Amino acid sequence: MLEILQANSIFDVLAPQYVARIELPLCGGVQIQCDGIDLGLAIETFAAPGKVPLYLERTGERNFGTEAGDTLGLRIIEAASGKSFFYVPACARLDASLADRLRGAALVLFDGTLWSENEMIEQGLMSKTGSRMGHINMSGPEGSIAAFANLGVARRIFVHINNSNPVLNAKSREFAAAQAAGWEIGWDGMELTL
For residue 115, is pLDDT > 60? Predict the structure, then answer.
C-alpha cells in the first residue's frame, strides 16, 4: 500500500516531511502499541472483506474483490482494562470470519456508506452499485442491519456515511428503521465511552 501511495502524486498533498507514512502491518492478533504519546492503547489490525480502490481496477477485469490488506478493520484496546471496540469503516460484506470476530463486542463502528444497493444510481450520482463500490448496504436481507441482528454486539454505530444516504435525515423512515434495529448514526464530534 505504501508503494501505491508513493506512485500516485495525488497523495503528496500530505507532505511526507509533515505527515509520516508508517507501515501498519496486517497483524491478525498481534497488538501494536501506539507510538508517540502514550495513550495506553493498542491497535490490532485485520483484513475485512472489501475491494481494490477504483483507480487501481484493471479494464476488462470482472472480479474486483479484495486482496488481503486492501480493506482493514481495527480493534482498539485499552491496555490497562482490556476493554476494546472495533472500527470497520469500509466493508463489502459481513462474512463468517468477520462475524465471529465482532460477535459479542461492546462497540462496533461500522460502514454505513449506503442505505441501498442502487442508491447512487437512483439519485443520478454515479453508475455503480454499492457492492460494485465495495460497500455493504445498511438495508435488505444481505445488509448490515440484518447481518448484525444475531451477533450480540452491545452498541452499533454507523460511520463513513455518504451524503446520499437518507439515514442522515433524522426525520426519514430509514433513520427510524436503523434506530428501531438498535443502530446509532455517527456524527462529527461524537464522544464514546466504553
Answer: yes
Q: How far apart are CA 80 and CA 134, in angstroms?
A: 36
As a whole number of angstroms, the distance between CA 25 and CA 68 comes to 11
Cβ count near 155 (within 10 Å): 15
A 10 A CB-CB count for 102 gives: 21
CATH no. for residue 38?
A: 3.60.15.10
Residue 32 has pLDDT above 90, yes or no: no
Question: Measuring CA to CA, how many Å separate 172 from each of 36, 70, 78, 147?
Answer: 43, 33, 36, 22
Residue 98 domain boundaries: 27-185
For residue 16, the model assigns a pLDDT of 76
Cell of 57: 481496477
* Mean pLDDT over the full length of the chain: 87
Task: Confirm whether 132 is domain-assigned.
Answer: yes
Instruction: For residue 11, tell me if it sits in a domain.
Output: no
